[in-house]
Design brief:
Strands 5, 6, 7, 8, 9, 10, 11, 14 and 19 form a nine-stranded antiparallel sheet that branches. α5 crosses α9. α10 links the parallel β22 (378-383) and β23. It contains 16 helices and 25 strands. 30% of the residues lie in helices and 22% in strands. By secondary structure, it is an alpha+beta fold. The protein has two domains: 23-328, Roll (Pnp Oxidase, Chain A), CATH 2.30.110; 358-466, UbiD C-terminal domain-like (3-Layer(aba) Sandwich), CATH 3.40.1670.10. The longest helix has 21 residues, at 337-357. It is elongated and about 100 Å long.
């Protein structure tokens, strides 16, 4: 009998081996890198958990020093304990953590996204018995048993004092187009309403794929099948936050990111495929006939969204790993984990659009400003020696690419660090004339913003500002690079506090300089400035010949 079973096993197709990190692998790597904080004491998910992690975003801690948190003993406000740990900040508390999630240097993420779009890898289906996410299954009436429905999942309250319920912040909704079968993965908040009912806010203002699907099912007078993926493969989370074309298979893009096919499995109760290596999957049907009140909830635009009517999902099954981990994302006021994910995802898309679709090769970098503006409202374009026409094409191209995002768009030169707003303001103040270099465009989309009064209507406007150099300028008045580097070595020998250079940290020419001035500067640092004093004494002019502050070189040109 044993031999017969062995023969059958040999004929069965081999289950594809996972070739990418799942959430458990990711946590192990973060711990090795010193980026994971394990909290072993009991922490209240309703009152303490998100506020604790929030402090590293609002407490003056630098981005590079933020950490991921794993709460091993979550409890609720009533003292009830859960057997599912809660992970917060593990996807993108900082850019290094995001890069680790993709197995890449954060500096190379732009290229990684470009490669994934150009070379998607289709997912591969595995049987249910081999899928880690199907190790535990509750469905139908089992969901009413205490601890087997949504009440058994320790979903934290994101904004205690404002939110009216726990919301799954890392809820990656999976739906598919009923016409072509292409799956969409998107991150939308999900309000816990009952052990077998969860809300869904499809963010209509952002033109999400889930809303297009919902409208198609509504026209058919059918409920929409959906699945909420929580945790699992970090690449799935990053794709869920990305803005890709509607007809793109997002499982294939995730495969492109990790250079291997994503393992998927048929859902238990809905006609969808889901990530086989996820931590938790919530399956169900989104009602297309009825809407329910949903919210208030603290949103990523930095304000609390009011209560409004939105769809809801009737849960038909919950599947999970035996040792599942709940992943929760810090969002709301930025910087946040959510804004780091968006920033790392959106900037490569902008850059690709301006450089490769519009062909503006003078564009070097796109920065979507993150603190408080949530990557939505301030876009900075760094350019190298652009023509005036290229500057305006780039500014307008950014607005039309994401009209709901780029409200203020600024073009700067390559010596201006877009991450340093002081430097950007410096360029605005000295390299532009508002009456010549500013345009206001009307008719743009208001996008993701507070719904607060009559101004939150159908249209908005945007400001385009050319802060690039239009002519030569004198040098930056800091010591040249060689002297700053020499002084840094002395600083370090003296064991003074660690330096973190800010651009600009040395002086450089902006074109308005010449060999005579260079020679005078060399004499000065060599202690021979007396020679310059003697030379300029021979160049005296009477006050009736020249006025104070008259340009010396202007006088020389007249001769």
């Amino acid at each position: 009998m044993a031999r017969k079973k062995l023969a059958v096993a040999k004929k069965s197709p081999a289950v594809p081996v996972r070739q990418y990190p799942d959430l458990h692998d990711h946590l192990e790597r973060l711990e090795r890198e010193g980026l994971l904080i394990r909290v072993k004491e009991r922490v209240c998910k309703d009152q303490e958990m998100h506020p604790l992690v929030r402090w590293q975003f609002r407490g003056g801690i630098k981005e590079k020093d933020r950490k991921a948190f794993l709460f091993e003993k979550p409890v609720d406000a009533r003292g009830n304990a859960y057997d599912i740990p809660v992970a917060i900040g593990i996807l993108a508390a900082n850019r290094q953590i995001y890069g680790i999630g993709l197995g890449a240097d954060p500096a190379k993420v732009n290229q990684l996204w470009a490669d994934a779009k150009a070379n998607p890898i289709a997912p591969v289906e595995i049987p249910s018995e081999a899928a880690p996410v199907h190790e535990v299954v509750f469905q139908g009436e089992q969901l009413q048993v205490p601890g087997q429905g949504l009440d058994g999942i320790p979903v934290p309250i994101s904004t205690p004092g404002w939110d009216n319920a726990p919301y799954i912040s890392a809820a990656h909704f999976i739906t598919k187009d009923p016409d072509n079968g292409i799956h969409n993965i998107g991150t939308y908040r999900a309000m816990i309403k009952a052990p077998d009912r969860v809300g869904c806010n499809p963010s209509l203002e952002l033109g999400q794929g889930i809303y297009i699907h919902w409208e198609k099912y509504r026209a058919r007078k059918e409920k929409m099948p959906a699945a909420l993926c929580i945790g699992g493969v970090p690449a799935i989370s990053y794709v869920a936050a990305q803005k890709l074309n509607y007809d793109v298979d997002e499982f294939a893009i995730a495969g492109g990111l990790v250079k291997a096919p994503i393992r998927v499995v048929k859902a238990k109760t809905v006609p969808l495929i889901v990530p086989a290596d996820a931590e938790i999957i919530i399956e169900g049907w989104v009602n297309t006939e009825w809407l329910e009140p949903e919210a208030p909830f603290g949103e990523s635009h930095g304000h609390v969204n009011p209560k409004e009517y939105n769809p809801y999902m009737e849960v038909s099954a919950i599947t999970r790993r035996k040792k599942a981990i709940l992943c929760s994302i810090i969002s709301q006021v930025t910087p946040s984990e959510s804004s780091v994910i968006k920033k790392m995802a959106y900037e490569p898309l902008y850059l690709d659009h301006l450089r490769n679709v519009l062909g503006i090769k003078s564009v070097l970098r796109i920065l979507l400003h993150e603190p408080l503006t949530a990557t939505q409202k301030l876009t900075i374009i760094q350019m190298r020696k652009p023509s005036p026409a290229e500057v305006w094409r780039a500014l307008m191209g950014a607005v039309t690419f994401r009209p709901a995002m780029s409200k203020i768009v600024i073009a700067v030169d390559d010596d201006i660090d877009p991450d340093n707003l002081d430097a950007v303001f410096w360029a605005l103040g000295y390299r532009s004339q508002p009456h010549r270099d500013v345009q206001i465009i009307r008719g743009t989309d208001i996008g993701h913003a507070p719904r607060h009064d009559a101004r939150g209507g159908a249209d908005d406007s945007c400001l385009l500002w050319d802060a690039t150099l239009k002519e030569t300028f004198p040098p930056i008045s800091l010591p040249k690079k060689e002297y700053m580097e020499r002084a840094r070595k002395l600083w370090e020998r003296l064991e003074l506090p660690k330096l973190e250079p800010e651009s600009p940290w040395y002086g450089y020419s902006l074109g308005d300089w010449n060999p005579e001035l260079d020679e005078e500067a060399k004499l000065a640092v060599a202690g021979e400035f007396w020679q310059t004093g003697e030379k300029i004494a021979r160049q005296r002019k009477r006050t009736d010949e020249v006025a104070i502050n008259t340009s010396y070189y202007g006088q020389q040109k007249e001769k």
